[in-house]
Amino acid sequence: GTPLIAGLTIAAAAYAGRYSIQAWQAFKAQPASARLGRKFYEGGFQPTMTKREAALILGVRESTATDKIREAHRRVMHANHPDAGGSHYLASKINEAKDMMLGKSKGNGSAFSR
Questions:
Q1: Which domain covers residue 70, as residue numbers?
Q2: Residue range 2-36, pLDDT digits in tens
Q3: Same domain, residue pair 72 and 100
Q4: Residue pair 60/68 in contact by the 8 Å Cβ criterion
């Protein structure tokens, strides 16, 4: 009864402690930049959008299927929509990226670059 439960509790605590130490060591072994969160693309926008840049904006591969492109566009636009405090410029680049990935755009630049 009670000694068995106490033994299992101690064993579980020891296992959790060991796991925590290993996780902390793995965390500390990472470079500081990796620990600060997701790594973002640090460049600006190209004068004329390419398919590579469009894929980077949407967070997809250049070969991504149409439905996944639309899903990624919806997700990125939701996070950056002007009505939610996002920038109109970024929204235009996100829409341009979707059009580029769906083959509807020749990368003419955003409405803000004309």
A1: 51-113
A2: 889 999 999 999 989 988 898 888 877 877 655 55
A3: yes
A4: yes
CA–CA gap between residue 80 and residue 66 (Å, rounded): 21
Residue 90's SS3 state is helix
Domain assignment of residue 43, yes or no: no
Which string of b and e fits 19-31 if b means at least 16 CB within 10 Å?
eeeeeeeeeeeee
The pTM assigned to this predicted structure is: 0.57
**What's the rounded Cα separation, in Å, for the pair 114 and 106?**
15
Q: Which CATH number fits the domain that encloses residue 72?
A: 1.10.287.110
Q: Do 108 and 93 form a contact (C-beta atoms < 8 A)?
A: no
| Tokens encoding 56 | 């980077």
pLDDT tens per residue, range 55-90: 999 999 999 999 999 999 999 999 989 998 888 999
Helices 88-101 and 51-58: angle between axes, nearest 10 degrees: 120
One-letter amino acid of 12 = A
